[in-house]
Design goal:
With 174 residues, this protein is mainly α. The longest helix has 27 residues. It contains 7 helices and no strands. The termini are far apart.
């Protein structure tokens, strides 16, 4: 049987990751630019239709955040977080290096990794799943979170990601 340290670690990870995801989703809707600003940002990134993706990203972040905090249906909220971070890495952070202060993938990598770690760790006794005695932990939930999240992101990107073509700087006007 896993000890209290395991349960506390799961609780701390959930209490950190879940509210942060929820806050990011809420900011997409009610932040300074609101949903209109998020839609414009997604349009610039090449996600089509941008308004649908702005709403979908905000809703998914908030739902994943709540799911992680309450710990219902592990590893599905973790898979949602992985999917969100995969799309962000591909559309907004790609080619910008590692460090987030330079626009790099550091943040999305840590959040995605933490979500997979939480799926592997399981929710612990201090959770809704713990109360209902539905503990899922180990390699299978971690692989499911990573695989489902990445596959969902890949499908979304294949169907909806249409970034603007970069002009070739070697061409000259004639």
């Amino acid at each position: 049987m896993k000890g209290r340290g395991h349960d506390v670690a799961a609780l701390v990870l959930r209490a950190t990751l879940g509210p942060m995801l929820f806050a990011h989703g809420w900011n997409k809707v009610a932040g300074p630019g609101g949903l209109k600003g998020t839609t414009g940002w997604f349009e610039a990134l090449g996600l089509k239709p941008a308004e649908v993706h702005a709403r979908m990203a905000a809703g998914t972040e908030m739902a994943a955040g709540v799911g992680i905090v309450l710990v219902a249906a592990n590893p599905l909220p973790a898979a949602a977080a992985v999917g969100l971070m995969t799309v962000a890495a591909r559309t907004d952070h790609r080619g910008k290096g590692f460090f987030v202060f330079k626009g790099g993938w550091e943040y999305v990598g840590v959040v995605g990794g933490a979500a997979v770690a939480l799926a592997a760790l399981g929710n612990g006794r201090y959770s809704l799943d713990g109360l209902l005695r539905r503990q899922r932990a180990g390699a299978r939930p971690a692989l499911l979170a990573a695989g489902l999240g990445t596959a969902s992101a890949a499908a979304l990107l294949a169907v909806c990601y249409r970034p603007a073509k970069q002009s070739d700087e070697t061409e000259t006007d004639q």
